[in-house]
Design brief:
By secondary structure, this protein is α/β, with parallel strands linked by helices. The chain has helices spanning 4-11, 24-27, 30-33, 50-60, 72-76, 81-88, 119-126, 137-149, 180-191; strands spanning 19-22, 40-42, 66-71, 93-99, 102-103, 109-110, 130-134, 154-159. The protein is built from nine helices and eight strands. The strands form two sheets. It has a six-stranded parallel sheet, sandwiched between helices. The protein has a two-stranded antiparallel sheet with strand order 5-6. α1 runs parallel beside α8.
């Protein structure tokens, strides 16, 4: 297992101009590391639907690399999406799975069958063009360039160190994020999307 902040630091130099979508407790580290917030979309609070939203974005913007940092708890709520993504064949889509084996936001309860699911194997069998699996930072860092250049859709399973939150949700310190309207406006400007 490795730390999500370290993983994001290894990923950032290889991001190029990709649209990056993040979710889950591990995804919170991205905001401090991203060097292009205009191309970031936070999907916090959309558990179970982040992967479908990212697929929709990749299909709508086929000339943009779209990168999703998903969580295993979220993916397990919508496992059918693996076949949908594979069937739609978005060549511009990279699906990273941050598997910490727990529901970290709600206190660290184990996700179903934690530690025994081969998510990369499931994605491969569903039909993803390229799949990878990492459980240490060094191997991930040595391979990230290859991952980002692989034929898509790409699936990358990563074993992450859990960042369990036990403070009641209402008392947790949250970093400010752009609101939905501002996020949409900034993304439309960045991608030169005009609304008729």
């Amino acid at each position: 297992m490795f730390d999500s902040a370290d993983m994001f630091r290894a990923f950032q130099p290889h991001r190029d101009k990709a649209i990056v979508l993040v979710t889950g407790t591990c995804g919170r580290d991205w905001r401090a590391i991203s060097e292009d917030e205009k191309r970031d979309l936070s999907l916090q609070g959309a558990m179970g639907q982040t992967n479908a939203a990212a697929l929709g974005f990749a299909l709508a913007q086929p000339n943009e690399k779209v990168v999703l940092f998903d969580s295993e708890g979220s993916l397990q709520m919508n496992m059918g999406i693996l076949g949908t993504i594979a069937g739609m064949k978005p060549e511009n889509f990279v699906h990273f799975l941050m598997d910490n084996e727990v529901y970290a936001t709600t206190g660290g309860q184990p996700t179903p069958n934690a530690g025994n699911i081969n998510f990369a194997g499931m994605a491969r069998e569903a039909g993803y063009a390229s799949t990878f699996s990492f459980d240490n930072l060094e191997e991930f860092a040595d391979s990230i360039e290859k991952v980002m250049q692989a034929e898509g859709p790409v699936f990358v399973a990563m074993k992450m160190t859990p960042k369990v939150e036990n403070e009641p949700i209402g008392r947790r310190v949250r970093s400010p994020q752009r609101g939905r309207a501002e996020t949409i406006k900034v993304m439309q400007e960045e991608l030169r999307i005009s609304i008729a």
